[in-house]
## 1
Amino acid sequence: MLLDSGVDIGPVTLGYETYGQLNAQGSNAVLICHALTGDAHVAGYHEGDVKPGWWEHYVGPGKSIDTNKYFVICSNIIGSCMGSCGPASINEQTGQYWGLDFPIVTIADMVRAQRALILHLGINRLLAVVGGSLGGMQALQWVASFPDMMGGVLALATTSRHSPQAIAFNEVARQSIMSDPHWQNGNYYDGKRPDLGLAVARMIGHITYLSDESMHIKFGRELRHGGGFAFNFDTEFQVESYLHHQGHKFVERFDANAFLYVTKAADYFDLDLSRSDSPARQALAATTARFLLISFTSDWLYPTYQSRQLVNVLKELGRDVSFCELTAAWGHDAFLLPHEGLEASIQGFLGGLE
């Protein structure tokens, strides 16, 4: 596969899961795109799982994305480490880990790989592409790259271009990894890994996923052990303990180099819709797909104004677009959590595409 960087890479491996059955017409396929450090396991339990897939509340029999009706596909993005090829994969030509020799990938590269999977599964046109956060970027890139391949696009808690603030947070997170003495310029796979740097990177990310209100609700200024201050630098506040816990959990499942690659892909993302001659804008003008964009009131990582900007462009182009801002206290992570309004919106949108 030829990447945006000009590098030709292969073989390309994708980890993916499917749910439900493809109908005889091949017309009921829904592609779900995962967020930054997600995976293909969108719903249900694997043997030994303590928790179900990351969107279990919305995907399954009788749920908003009803697997009795729809054939659901979710694939891990390239550049990641959850079944698809990336820096933590073995380079078949050398027999060694790719590390930083793995080429930089973009959201468009990820979507081209997904399209190859969709065609491999015998699907020529998707009923819908659905995604939140980085998954929403993929959904938007799908219609920008292949405007005739879907009936609808549902993008949640996302943006058409990464803001300077989002890029800044990602850079601080990357620097925390690259400053870890065990990072070794990405060549750590046969030794100690940069767990501390990766844990701090995750802590930074989690702050952006929450909101001021949600932190007050979940933690306040509560101390872990009650009483007064310890007057030292131990972990005292509940919010500190939560961030440390999230960081330690993350290093058990994710690769530090892969985190560098997926955050860089997010930072590069820009549909450049302000230019009338941009390829993405021309693709949006040509598509017949219907759109539903959903934002959340407390999401300050991808705030509502960024969704509205995209809605305004789609209206200017005469596209069929709906928009909904849902009230939620939980910040950017709200799209992952149960919400009656989100359930109804997803179900209604997909039902209208049938």
Note: Residues 164-178 form the longest helix (15 residues).
## 2
Amino acid sequence: MKVAIMSPVAWRTPPVKYGPWELVASNIAEGLIEKKVDVTLFATGNSITKGRLKFVTQEGYAENPEIDSKVWECLHISNLMEQADEFDIIHNHFDFLPLTYSRLITTPMLTTIHGFSSQGIIPVYKKYNSDNHYVSISNADRSTELDYLATIYNGINTNDFTFRENPKDYLLFFGRIHPEKGTYEAIQIAKKSGRKLIISGLIQDQNYFENKVKPCVNNDDIVYAGNSGPEERDKLLGEAYALLHPISFNEPFGLSVAESMMCGTPVIAFNLGSMPELIRDGETGFLVHTVEEAAEAVGRIKTIDRYKCREWALSNFSRETMAQAYLQAYGQILKLQQE
């Protein structure tokens, strides 16, 4: 089976630091390669893969401000589509735009929908639903207007995350610094629970950071550690007493939640979106609704078995599990193609 994986070209695949879609695309590509699948990754030229790499731009547009995102996205997508007949299946991680090529090629396409940036993009998915196959990354993140082939949870490379039985005493916020991610709420939770908070993540909303987050940072009990790469991420997540995830939106998945549990670190999250699917309440963390409930939950973290967090993550969110599920999805698609 020859599979083309189309990654976005905002960041390198896998990303140096931030880049969740690129990270998942990489994990799928490498997971399939481990299963002896013939994989070609369409990504930036500085991407890393054990498969074949094809590219039109050396760097991602989020890494180089001189790159026009629309121009190089178009060139990137067309580069794959003009070679479509070389593959048995195309696996799209590039949102809705590649769907507009799908009736111009004969190779079947599977699109992993990593979330809906707005309801305004759904008409594209609806138009091409009958010609394509969609996978959701959680049951919570499904549109009632679309048909899906399966739900397949994002998988992570277990070798990148170290289990740590004995954590330190700090709480951790790890993710985009943006109002919907709840960085300021995490600060409030830490203060109410009397614990140190380390914040790590890409500053996505500069005004929010300057006005709500930065005034609280004192490098004592509230620390901003910057946008951490893989090694620092593993250390921060593994040594944390708990990960705080006080989101205010229906998050499609939440990679940091799975990564935290892979290290054995429990998660306290607001009960929205996919969180009830990722977290076993009372076993791998706590699902709460308010800052006050979250602060109270910090006091119960010792009741969580860190080994169980690791076991849960290994069973549900490993790269191997994800790759196997996608292989089954590919098989379904190719069988339908033959009928």
Note: The chain has two domains: 2-155+318-338, 158-316.
## 3
Amino acid sequence: MDIGKFIAMIFIVLIHVLQRSLIGFTGKDGWGSIYFLMLGVPPFFFFSGMSYRLKKPLSPLGFLYDIVRRAFLYFVPFVWFIALRVWLYNQWPDFSKGWDELMLYPISGLWVCWILLWISLVVDIGLFISYICPKFKVAIVSLALVIGYVVLMIYRNRGIIETNHTIGYDYFMVYAPIFLVGYICGPYILKIKNIFIYIACLIVGSVALIPIAINNHEIIGVNFLEKSQWMMYLAALCSVLVYFGLINLVKKLKFSYVIAFLGQFTMEMYFLHLMLLKNWKTMHLGNNWVVFWVTVGLFLLCYVNTFGVILVTYYVPFLHFAMFGKHYSRYKFEDRIFGFVRDYCYSNGNIKKPLKVF
């Protein structure tokens, strides 16, 4: 799953770079934009669903811990993004225009925070209910997602929820079904070992996605709910086929463990590359070679920026947590603190021998 997340982030960064370096990549003739979008975004939610399948039912204390952890994970970088954008681009007057104006900054990029928050909340409620009857965990969580989807869709069709709402209800309706498919499948489908199946899935998914992208290239994001909702889900399934092939082929490489390691930092990559690219306008470049080298340069700059920040935060206690809301450090005492809190909450306070924090 980490290998898949890393590959998906490559497509996401690539589409944002090409939007700024290649004329015609988006818009009337830009079907390549929607093609890369489908290869980059839906698989993330599919993999998230697969990973949630491994989570056990939540005790009351574990449920509270998960809510607090998700709040830190999604909203610490969310706040940083707003603050840095205001500071870097000298947009201080926007603070006086109210909450909705400020929310226009991240809604075009950090909508992923809201959608992951809503999905996680619904799933955690399902896991909390399944604490009473753990044998039906999969059915209860799946039902919770379906109910959340149906309720929001009814509210939206009645005009109670606005399209492109600031806190991303629409995105829940776009990506929750993809998350649900990943949750039902679980990580077990990645254990198939036939290389011919990998190659067939890669070819079929890649080819099948082309006509979908060509016929729907002007439909991006939540606009699928307006025009071609089921086409969006079909495109997502095609992209999942592509990744099933890609992941299993990459796993055979000797350095696949490096790719898997880097795949753990896709959230950091997402936030930091937006800071580099979101305010850059489309460049009118003269020829194909200029486009190529500018694209390569911007692409590498995004990754160098991210790895540099990850490296620095690794050697400063609690800095990674302060910037990205999750623990990543070389210091054992930090690992013990977070590990003790996690184990204590997930065991509902039933740790017989508490760890020595220091």
Note: The chain is about 70% helix and 0% strand.
